[in-house]
Design brief:
The chain is α+β, with helices and mostly antiparallel strands. Helices cover 56% and strands 10% of the residues.
Length: 268
């Protein structure tokens, strides 16, 4: 029901950029390119083929709220509504697809929605190829470019916020020099909750585990090349439970064993 009420203008300059686009295709491409400005908890993909275009929606966090069907329905139904509003005409050839069985409440909204399929492989909005070429009544190249300038400024701020946090976590792990802080300790140091830390790292396309592995790999290479510590001691310093786990991890990172890396470093 909420998705049916959405209008492009609720998205500020991003909404105006879609309204002033040349056609439905360009409006969809703008939506896809800047989607994370409005919905950082989701990932939207855009693919075209000979039949049309498909926008697939994926949750990027293992959150009960994000996995709730209503949230996916809200976002995709809102996108479907936008297409008719952009074009200024009804009944575009589009279809909604959801990855769960038809819910009981669907009957109340059936007549307000485009064709809907359930039990699909993914949650998606499909748009027929001829609809992609529909010109938009408010198309205005100058206004479109002006709106995109503002959108880019807002998007740059989003990217900076996400990138700054990743770099701050990297710095904390680098300072630890083997005594790596866990997520809770890191969150305290960065003055955020553990949940917020995890979410913002995921929004930036990263994770605590990924950054920890990056720090361990850096420190492992330094210890292997610049010390004569045995593998057991190095593994302990890097917080591995035993040398075998360290060896497996290092092989995954470097494509060779720690011993092979040490030998190659010594030969230089």
């Amino acid at each position: 029901a909420f998705g049916l009420l959405l209008k492009p203008t609720v998205h500020g300059f991003l909404g105006y950029a879609t309204l002033t686009a040349r056609d439905i295709r360009e409006a969809l491409q703008v939506t896809h390119r800047y989607f994370r400005m409005r919905n950082r908890q989701y990932r939207l993909t855009y693919v075209e083929d000979e039949r049309g275009a498909t926008l697939e929606l994926h949750g990027v966090q293992a959150s009960p709220v994000l996995q709730h069907h209503v949230m996916f329905e809200f976002v995709l139904t809102g996108l479907a509504q936008n297409i008719a509003q952009w074009a200024g005409r009804a009944a575009p050839a589009i279809a909604l697809r959801f990855a769960w069985p038809e819910p009981a409440y669907f009957a109340r909204y059936r007549d307000c929605l485009p064709p809907v399929a359930f039990d699909c492989a993914a949650n998606a909005l499909w748009i027929a190829r001829d609809v992609l070429d529909w010109p938009l009544p408010f198309a205005d190249d100058v206004a479109h470019r002006q709106a995109l300038v503002q959108v880019e400024r807002e998007y740059a701020q989003v990217r900076q916020e996400e990138g700054d946090l990743v770099e701050r976590v990297r710095a904390e792990l680098a300072r630890a020099a083997g005594d790596y802080p866990g997520p809770d300790t890191l969150a305290d140091a960065l003055l955020v909750s553990t949940r917020t830390l995890r979410r913002r790292l995921e929004d930036a396309g990263s994770s605590y585990r990924q950054l920890l592995d990056e720090a361990r790999f850096r420190d492992a290479k330094q210890l292997l090349a610049a010390s004569d510590l045995d593998l057991k001691t190095i593994a302990e310093r890097l917080q591995f439970t035993d040398p075998a786990n360290f060896t497996r991890a290092f092989r995954r990172w470097a494509g060779q064993t720690p011993s092979a890396y040490r030998a190659a470093a010594a030969a230089v």
